[in-house]
Amino acid sequence: MAEGDENLELRFRVFDGTDICHGTYQSSVTIATLKQRLLSEWPQDKSLVPKSVDDMKVIHAGKVLENGKTLAESGVHTTDLPGVITMHVVVQPPIADRKTDKKEKQGLCSCTIL
């Protein structure tokens, strides 16, 4: 382990409230590496499954964490929060799906004049 490297116990909460990838990570791990693991272990029974790491955003303490930074550079420390640290994962729907949803919503509106 590198000097100043600490072990962090993390879990990642997805949109429906379930936790995935609970484990111990070194503070030198990059956010992109975390996203790769999340993608590989993502439960396939979810209604929304990311296709790439670009479809996910990892949020800690109200901040979206950048892919190129490590956990330490992102300000994730055990001294700040003792115990298991929960991070939230948001999945961005594919662009084609968002355009389709918008068209469908426009078609659902109707007015009745009496």
In total, how many beta strands? Answer: 5
Q: Tell me roughly what share of residues is in helical segments.
A: 10-25%
Rg, Cα atoms, Å: 18 Å
Q: What's the CATH class label? A: Alpha Beta
Please provide the ordered H/E string of secondary-structure elements: EEHEEEH
Derived structural class:
alpha+beta
CATH homologous superfamily annotation:
Phosphatidylinositol 3-kinase Catalytic Subunit, Chain A, domain 1
Taking the alpha carbons of the first and last residues, their distance comes to 74 Å
Q: What's the tally of helices?
A: 2
- Overall form: elongated
- Average pLDDT metric: 81
Low-pLDDT stretches are none
| Strand order in the largest sheet | 2-1-5-3-4
Largest sheet: 5 strands, mixed
Q: What is the fold-level CATH name, i.e. the topology?
A: Ubiquitin-like (UB roll)
Strand content: 25-35%
Task: Indicate how many domains the architecture comprises.
Answer: 1
The CATH architecture name reads Roll
